[in-house]
Amino acid sequence: TPDIRAGDCEMKNEETVPQLRKMVLGQVEHSPAHKQPGKYLALDCEMVGVGLDGAESALARVSLVNFHGAVLLDAFVRPKERVVDYRTQFSGIRPSDMPATAKPFEEVQQQVADLLKDRILVGHAVHNDLKALLLSHPRSQTRDTQSLSHKHKLPSARGRRPALRHLVQTELGLAIQTGEHSSVTDARATMALFRLHRKTWEKDFRPFPRPSAPSSSSRPRSTSPALAASTSKTKAKGKAKASPAPDDASAFPGGGRRGVSSGLSTVVKRLGGGGKDRNSAKSKSRPNPQKKWWTELSGG
Fold first, then answer.
1. Pairs from 288-295 (Cβ < 8 Å, separation ≥ 24)
2. What is the rounded CA–CA span in Å between residue 97 and residue 93?
3. pLDDT one-digit tens code per residue, 174-230
4. Is 236's pLDDT higher than 80?
5. Fewer CB near the terminus (10 Å): N or C of the chain?
6. In sequence order, which ranges of the chain are alpha helices (DSSP H)?
7. 3-class SS at 43?
8. Residue 256 and residue 254: Cα distance in Å, rounded?
């Protein structure tokens, strides 16, 4: 169990440090309003070892908490490969956690994508978590406490990639990851660290609008590459069917349609002078396939 450092009711950047400690430890009772997703969500994942000697990592647990540390998602994920090493001393995951309570990868992936849509993602080296989930998220809506703590030169930030446990120990006076890890605790610790420096760190980003009701035409910002590709192909196919092919009377060389200039007729008109009638200009704009018309345009 993480330990609280002695010393107490200090304030830092308008946040009560002891209250943040309690949030990390899960000692806060949340009101119904504080259980809502809100604007910020913190993500953390745990991995198990698969492949030869368990050297490769596979997603095994995903946790999402909101700004107040309330758990919105905490799910075990069933790896598609045989688990060779549960890495219990670090991941906190045991064989008994799977497969009885584990969910399929695609189900958890979709839950995370739905929750992150139009929200700001907070994480520590969060690109690793997104990679494990096969998800992407807009950079303008991502707050990585590892890179931000280095960028703003926190005294506790050692090197370019400071560890979460070092930052939390120095900034909050709280020891985490002393034994088995918990993705819920780590997600809460990441959110607590972000809250402690939020006002300074948010100056690096443009104001983000509040989450709005999803429209039928929008697709999730956080989505898997396969799902995004499938969606775009479907939309492209629908558009191709909805757009009739232009007839000969309305088509122009180089693309375009009647009433919309493709640019080619403009060039020919300038070369040919402005005293021609409309039909003559149109006939000039049609290139003769037997003639190298581009040599005339370039002056060659």
1. none
2. 7
3. 999 888 889 999 999 999 999 999 999 999 888 766 655 444 443 445 555 555 555
4. no
5. C
6. 17-25, 88-91, 105-116, 126-133, 145-151, 164-172, 183-201, 225-242, 264-272, 278-285, 293-297
7. strand
8. 7
36 phi and psi angles, rounded to 5 deg: -75, 155
CA atoms within 13 A on the CB side of 192: 31
Place of tokens 């209250």: 19
In the chain, the percentage of residues whose pLDDT exceeds 70 is: 66
Q: Taking Cα atoms as reference points, which of 65, 52, 58 lies closest to residue 20? A: 65
Encode burial over 99-110: b for 16+ CB neighbours within 10 A, e otherwise.
Answer: eeebbebeebbb
Contact 22, 28 (CB under 8 A): yes
140 pLDDT more than 90 = yes
How is residue 202 written in tokens? 């948010």
Per DSSP, the residues of 260-273 read S--SHHHHHHHHH-
Compute the distance between CA of residue 285 and CA of residue 268 in angstroms, rounded to an integer. 6
User: Mean pLDDT across the chain, nearest whole number?
Assistant: 78
Report CA-CA distances (Å) from 158 to 77, 162, 184, 247.
Answer: 32, 5, 24, 67
Q: What is the CA radius of gyration of the chain?
A: 29
Indicate if the pLDDT at residue 279 is higher than 90. no
What pLDDT digit, counting tens, does each position of 60-96 carry?
Answer: 999 999 999 999 999 999 999 999 999 999 999 999 9
CA nearest neighbour of 134 among 108, 173, 163 = 108
209-240 in b/e form (b: 16+ CB < 10 A) is: eeeeeeeeeeebbbbbeebeeeeeeeeeeeee
Show the DSSP H helices in 26-163 as ranges.
88-91, 105-116, 126-133, 145-151
Considering only CA atoms, which of 232, 212, 236 is closest in space to residue 224? 232
Considering only CA atoms, which of 134, 140, 135, 105 is closest in space to residue 119?
A: 140
Average pLDDT of the residues in 39-47: 97
DSSP three-state, residue 191: helix
